[in-house]
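Quick one:
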Amino acid sequence: MKLATILAGALLVCVMACPLAHAAADPVTLTTYLHDPAWTKRFDTMFGKTPKPGWLNSATQSEAVPVTMGGKPYTVLLACKQHDCANHQLVVLFDATTIYGLRFETTDNSPKETLTWLNIGGGPESIDGKTILYAAITGSLFNHPAMFAFPASK
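Output:
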């Protein structure tokens, strides 16, 4: 009887712990970061006078991808309009203090792309940052993440 009680208790602990273990393994996405009010403020500020896309609230999102720019670690997040990812995307590149973005818009099978660069200045983000952001839009970053480790300039 005592062994049965111990086994039942152990089973209960396993059942209760399994959802927690699964929750810890959830992918890190844009929504994950948007739960942090300080990060959300930086994200909102990145847009400046450019309106945030309305579809962001129900966007399809990729997992975070680590990259290196100027020898420093950054994170890349991609979100796209649900059921229309090929035509409406937003990608962000950020570290602990800076955040850059690219809003991509097009129409099915059109050769015309509208690129709206967000918070891009004259630093390393103006070349390597744009390369990383556009590579996320095209899928190249997700297919070849090791290729996006830009060392510090000499």
